[in-house]
Design a protein that fits this description.
This protein is mainly beta and about 80 residues long. The chain contains 1 helix and 6 strands. The strands form 2 sheets. The chain has a 4-stranded antiparallel beta sheet with strand order 3-4-5-6. It has a two-stranded antiparallel sheet with strand order 1-2. It is globular and about 35 Å long.
């Protein structure tokens, strides 16, 4: 299990298992427009999840972000 905290649309934070995510698409999301994003689906919370990460800094570290997205967002951004 690789734990991942996801901020849901209602503002709550839910911990899920990242290894159980199903990747659906890659692209650039609207929430963090300067970052590459991956759209995934979590069966644990029955919701779409956006995953993004910033470019690595000089030490190779990269800040990541995970957030729940709506069906409308998925259709508009990833078509």
């Amino acid at each position: 299990m690789i734990p991942l905290e996801v901020r849901r649309q209602d503002g709550s934070i839910k911990q899920i298992d990242m290894t159980l995510l199903t990747r659906l698409a890659k692209g650039t999301g609207e929430i963090r427009t300067v970052r590459r994003a991956t759209l995934a689906f979590s069966t644990e919370i029955d919701a779409f999840v956006g995953l993004s990460s910033a470019a690595p800094d000089i030490r190779g570290n990269s800040e990541g972000d995970s957030y729940g997205v709506s069906d409308e967002y998925v259709g508009r951004v990833y078509r």
